Amino acid sequence: MFKRVLIANRGEIAVRIIRALREMGIESVAVYSTADRDSLFVKLADIAVCIGGPQPADSYLNIQNIVSAAVLSGADAIHPGFGFLSENAEFARVCAECGVIFIGPEAKTIELMGNKSNARSTMKKHGVPVVPGSNQAIKNIDAALEIADQIGYPVMLKAAAGGGGKGIRAIKDREDLIKKFPDAQRETKLSFDDDDMYIEKIIQSPKHVEVQVMGDSAGNILAFPERDCSLQRGHQKMVEESPCSLINSSEREYLMSVSAKAAKAINYLNTGTFEFLMDDQHHFYFMEMNTRLQVEHPITEMVTGIDLVKMQIRVASGEKISLKQSDIKIHGTAIECRINSEDPFHNFLPQAGKIKSVHFPLGCPGARVDSAIENGSTIPPFYDSMIAKLIAHGSNRKEALAIMDRMLDEMSLVGVKSNLDFQQRLLHSPAVLKGNTTTDYIEKEFLPYWQAQLAEEKVG
């Protein structure tokens, strides 16, 4: 087992990993930018190393500085968390070259599945149903038009090396593609230093479901119950739950089985997530694989009782997975709400500033908070706006929703604006209560309703 692990990340995920390491008796090394000098994750770590200025390129994306910090601090391994360098094959490769274990898949696997076009081809070859689309990277508008004309509009234009909503454009027709392609490709190049694109057919009003897997060096693979991540705004997840209330047991077994087989086919090591779209006929289509821990991993932990971060660390240290697939059971329902420092009243504009006070709604069974903020914390303007995750776990969906409603109502945050009120109103909407929302629900239905509601309250 490792003696010391460096966390190549910040914020709540760094805190989450540090806490897991402490419980395992492993020392933690935090790396931080000058903007995060006084952050909670820096205070909690056994060792903390400043790796650069506030801009991500100077710190959390600086491979040389991070690996140097690992070597100089005597870290055996690096946990990348999510975001930043977590799906960067070069980072994993440099770690290996410097004798530091990367807690995640091998560089070649990250490379294979990180390119969405190659991932689609690979999954198709191994019998996983995929959304109709391009089978290789698209480098120019002519190639894009040829594919889109062939599969039919509307289509989704995406960054081949992308994620997090960057480079994504919904395309309604040929003229729309000609208009949007250059801007999407520029955004892709800026975000990922790679301008390859791919195109897939738009599945109208789908559900977004995903299956997390875990693989060890002996070839053992576990698949976990699905998560429903359909509540999104701007291709960014806002609320997630597990299991999906509209999926039956046979469909669940199919999703878990096909994901486990796909992971085994590519010799997958450590954790990753297969993302699928489900249409109104409950047909599933592979969309992409995230070769890292997901933001929403806590809901899987709550319904299975398995600590995924500790399992990641054990697997990376060479231990075999001790559980069998039959050991993975679902216990109730878990829901996660992402709390962001943003202003929903002004197009969800990210907010920076100092938190004067924060109260987290803990103290009852089924209530969990993953966060890195405390009274006096500063929210820098340089990073993602997510500052906390509220996780509710109940014996059934109704109970989980009730716990989450109480948590959203009780949490208070003074000093920066947040989406707390928006999230609570969202959870009260009839479609969410029924569980039949799709990926376009927030933007097409709930946002207009919410804005009209606000206008009425203002008049009143």
Description:
With 460 residues, this protein is an alpha+beta fold. The protein has three domains: 4-103, Rossmann fold (3-Layer(aba) Sandwich), CATH 3.40.50; 132-201, Dna Ligase, domain 1 (2-Layer Sandwich); 207-459, D-amino Acid Aminotransferase, Chain A, domain 1 (2-Layer Sandwich), CATH 3.30.470. It has 15 helices and 23 strands. It has helices at residues 11-23, 40-44, 63-73, 89-97, 107-114, 116-125, 141-151, 174-192, 249-265, 297-304, 308-316, 397-410, 420-428, 430-434, 441-459, and strands spanning 4-7, 27-33, 47-52, 77-79, 101-102, 155-159, 169-171, 197-201, 207-215, 221-223, 227-233, 236-242, 270-278, 284-290, 333-340, 342-343, 349-350, 353-354, 357-359, 367-371, 378-379, 386-394, 412-414. Strands 9, 10, 11, 12, 13, 14, 15, 20 and 22 form a nine-stranded antiparallel sheet that branches. Strands 3-2-1-4-5 form a five-stranded parallel sheet. α7 (141-151) crosses α8 and α12 (397-410) packs antiparallel against α13. The radius of gyration is 21 Å and the shape is globular. The model has no long low-confidence stretch (mean pLDDT 96).
Which terms would index this structure?
single chain, 460 residues, alpha+beta, Rossmann fold, Dna Ligase, domain 1, D-amino Acid Aminotransferase, Chain A, domain 1, nine-stranded antiparallel β-sheet, five-stranded parallel β-sheet, globular, biotin carboxylase
